[in-house]
Amino acid sequence: MIDASLFLQTVKTDAFLISQFYNIVYLTSFETLSPHEREAYLFLVQDKKIIITDARYKGEQHSADSELYILQLGEKVGEVIQRLCEKYKVKTVGCEANDLKWSEVQSLQKLGLDLIPINNPLSHFRSIKTEEELFAIKQACHIGDQVLKDITPYIHPGQTEKEIAWLLEKSIREGYGADIAFEPIVAVDAHGAIPHYNTKKGDGVIEEGSLLLIDFGVKAHNYCSDITRMVAVGDVGNDVIKTYSQLLDAQKKTIEFAQKAILLKQIDDYCRDELKKNNLPGYSHSTGHGIGLEVHESPRISAVSTDEKQVGQVFTIEPGVYREGKWGMRIEDTLTVSLQGEIEVLTRFPKDLILL
Q: What average pLDDT does range 161-184 have in this prediction?
């Protein structure tokens, strides 16, 4: 975990207000019930990490270097922050520009606080995983591999996308005591051509000759995995088989190229060039994304990324080919940059087209 004083030296403010759910978890191990509700703040000042929350979380676990401040009935967060600023003679308070709401900013400014907004102040720290974080991600990846092994024999014509998504979730939760990292994408035929297809709203049914895309992740010990594999149910035709072979070759070569890449943008460029060699269309999404406490975090593997490849990063490589109105295919793995600078693929379920 990052020391509060070290972080404050990096952002160059007297204190810092952390509001983003996963950043609070990252810095203190303190976790509220929902990441989508504002139920806690973290105030960093000098060498202190002060978690400001209410009585619902009294006694909740947190790191040894942090402390809980429980709001009294009717007490406002801003009042507590103002008192802390007076106590520690704080002049400037940093805040997360990409997370704090405008109404929250206005409330704090009314108290006379000099707020310094900073975008993604923890993204660099979080992008480099510790051994403990990497162990959790590897566990999540391993569970994902096992889940695919468990459920693929049960896929058959007549089955709906929703039924397969439920099989995935059931296996993750009941079979391995883990959680889903995000709502699974299970897309049949033309639905697969929509990269972020919403299976919960879908009505797809597998038929003889269907091409099925399965994109899901596991969350273990708060850390995520991400994997996409393709399933052919019956005869899907020569065009699909040929295109898949070309996509797989491009994905494998991209992972090999990542070994020598310096900038992550280079990986994105290389992958797209490999598809062009076979006259395959480009894809609308990035070639990959960082993964950790969140399924999408720093670093970015995209055409506009400015991130450098560094030891300890964990990210995905996931090129796709999409034929609108027909089918879509994507191959995705989670990988890491080892201490030796080598690329290690963490999702190990076979990548060959699964033939049923």
A: 97
